Amino acid sequence: MTSQVIIQAIISGILMGLIYALIAAGLSLIFGLMEIVNFAHGDHLMISMFSTFWFWMLFGIDPIFSIPLTIILMAFLGVFTHYFIIRKILNSTMLIQICATFGLAVTIRALAQFFFTPDFRTIKNPIIQGKLEIYGIFIGYPQLFASFICLFAFILLYLFVTKTETGTALQATSQDRQAAEILGIPSNKMFALGWAIGLSCVAVAGSMLSNYYYVFPDVGVNFSLFAFVAVALGGFGSINGSLIAGVIIGIVESVGGLLIDPSYKLLYVFAVYLLVVILRPQGIFGRY
Amino acid sequence: MLLNIKNIDVAYDDYQVIWNVSLSVKEGEMVALLGPNGSGKSTVLNSISGLIKIKNGEIDFNNIPIHKFETYQRVGVGISHVLERRRVFPYLTVLQNLLLGAYHEKAKAEREKSLQDIYNFFPKLKERSSQIANTMSGGEQQMLAIGRGLMGMPKLLMVDEPFLGLAPLVIEDLKLIFKKIAERGIAILFVEQNVRLALSMANRGYILESGRLVIDGASKDLVDSKEVKRVFLGS
Q1: What is the pTM of this model?
Q2: What is the ipTM of this complex?
Q3: Is A187 on the interface with B (CB under 8 A)?
Q4: How remote is the C-alpha of A112 from its chain's centroid?
Q5: Chain B interface residues facing chain A, Cβ-Cβ under 8 Å?
Q6: pLDDT tens, B70-112?
Q7: What is the Cα Rg of chain B in Å?
């Protein structure tokens, strides 16, 4: 085995990891804000991918141009999800909250299978295709582009949350809901905003993935598992943590697959998760 | 009358904790709400700021009935509530905490001016403006919580147990600050367990026992009242 192959695996891992990071950031943001775990996160990713697919299939819009449309669609879906489902279970016990978002996941997936059939679909001849070769290392342009866009979206998210007034109000709500409310920050609107942003993250990731990944109703399952691991590893509610954790998971998946066997790639990621639970249950940057 | 509470009942689900309480605060007045543990003092403040909804009765502020307003709307009419145990946003900086105090429209317009004002009031907050709130001492966090409340440009500042867990020297500092706030014409309604300390500051006091108002009056009359001694010491 040459060093080239290992470098190749690390680069592929980082590129994939940046996508995991953005998906995890959305999950982490929602959890940090209202302590609700969105078990339908992977299925929201699946909807984003189908949205991108149908924009291409029906209207011939290439994935790189349909990103804003998918973001708008998913942001609305987030607000809708908050007002019609989450708001009603905010003060319920944890079991009810789990059942609500888990039920949502099952419903979304079943509806996708019913309407879209379980077939695997791909977007043919997207604008961005082909690959780059540097010193014998191959990087697909779609993967490279997807990772750059996800990293860019991540930076925007970070700047929004830390530098803007609304972002600070969002943080305040996540740190002390009542104290924020008495200062005039309507927590309900902040929660809706949190859902809109959380699902916009998967909208960006989903659009970019559908450039080179199969689109099918169960596609979100593995991504959401990886996102959960990334959130736990990075620390629940920490957006920065999910970036580092996403990249770590991407590398572990890819290098583990290379060194041992790619068919066990889930195993390596969950081994990392197990280590985190044992050694540092609050995650790298966790407060909880 | 700035704040006028008429015959309110408050219950947590089916468990009633406040029975027929009436209370009022005039402009620029300092009023203490006293009572033993669990007598319902904090609940009264929470129902004024809307963290809990009242079952019966009425709360008027500047002659506007506010008891149906959502919590986040009440700060806009001029009520700032400093919660028990300070409740600053632990992972935000001092400056971010203060600026959030001026989140509602009216206060936002005057934000820079209010900030300079608060900095003059609490020079320590200016020194530490970029420090993360939960790394400060209890007294400093209390100052931050009060400063954050004042950023909302209230006509009424409600403070829940301002002296809880503070060193005697810090308590003296805070007493002075309360006096200065009152001198600016901002009414203060505060909750306290230490009767002597509270009555040494306030113009008037109300005393709650098991959710019912037992006695109220000018501070100097309450200090020596037998009824007050009975509530706090028994017999």
Answers
A1: 0.94
A2: 0.94
A3: yes
A4: 19
A5: 49-51, 70-76, 80-81, 83, 87-92, 96, 99-101, 103-104, 107, 148, 152
A6: 999 999 999 999 999 999 999 999 999 999 999 999 999 999 9
A7: 17
